[in-house]
Amino acid sequence: MKLRLCVSVALCWGTSCTPPTVPADKAPTEDTDTEDDPEVLSIDTSVYIPVDTAPDVVPDLQPSDWIQLRHQGLWSLSGSPFTDLSGQLILREYLNVLDTAIDTSIATTDTAYVDPYLCNVTYSLTGSAIDNHTCATCSFVFEVEHYVSDGDPSLCREPDTPPDGAVWQLGYNAGTDEILLNYYGTDVWLPWYDTTTGPPNIAFEWSFSLAIELEDTGDGG
Amino acid sequence: MRSPAPVWVALTLFGCTPSPDDGIQIGSLRVDPPPAPPTDFKSLDLASALADAFEIAGVATLATAWAGHTDAMGRGVVGCPDLWIGAPPQDIADINVGDDQVPGLSWADSCQTPAADTFDGFAYWESAIQLTGAEPTGGARSLTMDAQVAAGDGSVLLEFDGEASDSLEGSAYSSSLVARSLSGSLVGFGSGLRGELDVSWSGDEMELFGSIHTNDGFGPPDDRDPDPEDTPELQNLPSWEPGMPRFTSVRFDLQLGGDCALEPQGYVGVRGNEGFWFDVYFLPLYDPEEESAQSNAFPYEAIDNLDCDGIGTIFVRNLDLRAADEGDPEWSREVSIDFAGILASMPTPTLDEFVFTLADLPRETP
Fold first, then answer.
1. How confident is the model at residue B169 (pLDDT cuts 50, 70, 90)?
2. Cβ-defined contact of A49 to B213 (cutoff 8 Å)
3. How far, in Å, CA of B207 to CA of A85, rounded?
4. How far is it, in rounded angstroms, from Cα A212 to Cα A171?
5. Which of A18, B41, B86, B178 has the fewest C-beta atoms lying within 10 Å of its C-beta?
6. Distance CA B69, CA B65 (A)
7. How far apart are CA A180 and CA A144, in angstroms?
8. In a domain, A158, yes or no
9. Which of B55-64, B225-234, B344-353 has the lowest mean pLDDT?
10. Which range is least confidently modeled, A10-19, B152-161, B253-262, B305-314?
11. Which of B84, B354, B358 is nearest residue A208 as measured by Cβ atoms?
12. Distance CA B11, CA B2 (A)
């Protein structure tokens, strides 16, 4: 009811009124101020965003849980110069410290078995060298297809986990011993992996730790 | 999408003030006799001030905050700040992350690096490259932050309290920024800005809506004589100082494109340091027949020039200056703006600026 009243009043104004005007005889060269009727109003029609007075400093958190991201891979190159690539990439994510007592290579039907990995994906890699690329620092560049041979990449938290069938442009920089990625074809070449052995069998690895807040499952665990 | 805020502002004004004697605009000063405009309103270079306003709009975007944040993260080390997958703990920041999407990344800490840089607060961000087939055709980002990053000497590198998002599709850029504060040497602006602004532009279109307050002000130095007899509008302004920037804030409700490439629909305003707005109205933004609060607020009947020519009509303190114009052959209430030049100067980020991954963050070496 109140809202309807407001709207009806607004419509009335819109059709019947005109804006205030400044008469020529009230141009500022003429002092129009009087003591009884001050011309200056302390009205500011600004639209302000409220100032947040909350402190910016948060407690010095000590995260109790961490996701460990681990990537390991191997490229085997062939041809001279290198024309073909085959290899493997293993992505693993686990919480805090890996329980090495569990041998995940053994298939089990034990219902009490707990997979220590949040994500454990093995890719088979195949690639072909390309000359038409934009990596100025790369010794060579391959288009590498990621074929999932085991595991489910959708379980991985890492935002840039390759989906099954992803084809990425990856290059090798002999000067820095790095593998670089053309990020989603943007021609932004990011240092992606550090290598531990050079061509023709390039081993590489990458690791990262990220804090995580675990959901309270309510089971006391 | 247009914010509903102006509707509510208008309804509040209409519903909670006595019936006016004059004026139909939102925020009009409904007094009789009408108040005087600021004494220097004829001597100000409003075209230049409006160019500054568009420059401010061009950088009051997520792109600016994002660049400051990525630069700040380049100063981090392993453990300072602590990096989180997804949002920080809910007792620190209540950020809603959808269940059906890959969570973004965040940091939350109060720490100091070996180089004495400090990180205090939290930030949560998401970024994605959009593909058409295998081709990257766009990007999208968001940043929610309430934090300060400072150098060892105490100088603020970045402070952002707010949330913002943007996207790039081809050459079409759009940004939505809500900033309770945005400042620091990594983003410019001197001591910063605050406000809320939605912008978008492409090669031949532009849309701006919202308002931004600059803490340091902008525009020419204010050379008014503070004598209350000469400048009554400066009474009771203890923070006013001679030579301070003449303007403090900008506001927009503006759409450029469509049938007229020379002139937008809507208005742009700059706020003087005495608190009075200088608004320049261009082509009507709303249909006069729609009988909405906005259409009723737009001063159609007080604007003579409705041609597509880039010329707008000045209102000061929401006053129709027609009589002042007619009484002074040396001054005009109309101002010409080069919108093609303004549109060409709006800073559009490139797609590579949307790339920000774990590879850009500090990590332990294997």
1. very high
2. yes
3. 50
4. 32
5. A18
6. 6
7. 12
8. yes
9. B225-234
10. A10-19
11. B358
12. 16
- pLDDT class for B102, splitting at 50, 70, 90? low
Three-class DSSP category at B326: helix
**Cβ contact A28–B277 (<8 Å):** no
- pLDDT tens sequence for chain A (221 residues): 333 333 333 333 333 334 445 444 444 433 344 444 434 443 455 555 555 656 555 666 788 899 999 999 999 999 999 999 999 999 999 999 887 665 555 555 655 666 788 999 999 999 999 999 999 999 999 999 999 999 999 999 888 999 999 999 999 999 999 999 999 999 999 999 999 999 999 999 999 999 998 876 555 44
Nearest to B22 among A18, A39, A188 (CB): A18
Mutate to test the interface with B, among A9, A40, A94 (most CBs of B within 10 A): A40
Q: Which of B141, B254, B279 lies closest to B197, judged by CA?
A: B254
Contact B270, B47 (CB under 8 A): no
User: Which of A32-36, B133-137, B161-165, B323-327 is predicted least confidently?
Assistant: A32-36
Residues of A in contact with B212 (CB under 8 A): none
The amino acid present at A1, given as its one-letter code, is: M
B88 min Cα distance to partner chain A (Å):
7
* Yes or no, beta carbons of A159 and B29 under 8 Å apart: no
Of the partner residues B11, B90, B92, the one whose CB lies closest to the CB of residue A58: B92
Domain map (residue ranges) of chain B: 23-228+242-349
Residue matched to tokens 């002139």: B263
User: How many angstroms separate the CA of residue B118 from the nearest CA in chain A?
Assistant: 11
- Residues of chain B with Cβ-Cβ distance to A43 below 8 Å are 29, 275
Nearest CA in chain A to B25: A19
Could you tell me the residue range of the domain that residue A150 belongs to? 66-104+112-211
Angle between helices B5-16 and A2-16 (to 10 degrees): 80
Question: B328: distance to nearest CA of chain A, Å?
Answer: 8
Q: How many domains does chain A have?
A: 1
Q: Closest CB to A61: pick one of B109, B213, B327.
A: B109
Q: Which residues does A49 contact at the CB level (< 8 Å), separation at least 6?
A: B178, B179, B180, B194, B195, B196, B213
Is the residue at A36 inside a domain?
Answer: no
Tell me the β-bridge partners of B197: B177, B210
